Amino acid sequence: MTVYTKKNVEELEHNAEYRGCTIYLNDIITQIQNCKFDQCSFRSKSVVIESIVDTSFVNCNFPHLCLRKVDNLHIEGGYIEYLDLSLAKSADLSTVHNTQIVGLNLDNCKLKKIPAQVFKTLSLKTLSLSTNQLSEIPSEIEQLRELLSLRVSENNIGNLPKSISKLSKLQELRLCMNRIQKFPMQIVKLSELQHLSLWGNKLKKIPEDICELHNLNELCLWKTDIETLPNSIEQLSQLNNLNLSENKIHEIPKSIWNLHNLAVLDLSRNFIGRVSKSIKNLQNLFELNFAYNHIREVPVEMIELSKLTYLDLYGNKIANSDFLHHYLPNCTIEV
After folding, report:
1. Within 10 Å of residue 221's Cβ, how many Cβ atoms?
2. Are 217 and 300 in a shared domain?
3. What is the reported pTM?
């Protein structure tokens, strides 16, 4: 076995040992086989390895490590800014010990349960478990107190554990396309939450308590079977992006007109027949989507939306939209 000590390395060899080396890799590595890395620093922005066999990393540092096929890999200590196993045939973390991992991607790993090792990785700030076969999030999730982002979309989850409310630093929660049939009240205790996405769940109703999420910036409730929003939604003063597409809304909730920081509003594919003059209150809108509703006319006050760059009115039978092209010359308008 060839041994390299404290070298700058740009190409890796099989059957080699690297000690204290600084490694720069510009291309995807097809295969690493029977190698040992000890106290090495990988300086490439992203390290992508197609196949890794009979290899160990001890006290090594990575900015972004993406592994696609893994066979007999051992990682001990060190630091990984982001570990991506979403394309790997195995999501086995049992051979990873005492490694500080900040971001972990286990999407598309056919997981039926979240690996126990995940909850021992207390350094995690981002965790993605989307497109698996998970039916629950265990109560042990509360151990990940540093977590800022949790993505568990496209699974079979019906309920959330009470302990999820203890993730006091959580800023992003994405639970799209699961089997949640009632808005999880644990969520409203996540006071630092900025991005919440629940689209594709049959929630039917949003509670008044949603106003407790006073830092919320993005709220995606697309295709959740809701008919309206609670009046308290107007208290979400930081809300910038609101997606209510493909629901059962017949009348735009008045509370929306008080969301003065809204930049993106999507109400497409509902049953809306009228747009209130109060739309002029949304002076920061730059994208507005009313496509595929039952709207027959738009209020003249819409010309006061001077920041608007995109307006979609397609799929309605609007007779009086021509004036918009004149008064909103910088806006792309679909009719």
Report:
1. 24
2. yes
3. 0.94
Residue holding tokens 């700030």? 125
- Pairing between β-strand 29-33 and β-strand 47-58 as defined by DSSP bridges: parallel
**Across the chain, how many H-helices and E-strands are there?**
1, 24
Q: CA 133 from chain center: how many Å?
A: 18
* 54 φ/ψ sector (left φ>0, alpha ψ -120 to 50, else beta): left
The model's confidence at residue 87, banded by pLDDT at 50, 70 and 90, is: confident
55 and 113 share one domain? no
Give pLDDT tens digits for 143-178: 999 999 999 999 999 999 999 999 999 999 999 999
CA distances from 123 to 67, 92, 119, 240, 296 (A): 20, 18, 10, 30, 54
The residue range of the domain holding 223 is 209-335
How far, in Å, CA of 47 to CA of 255, rounded? 48
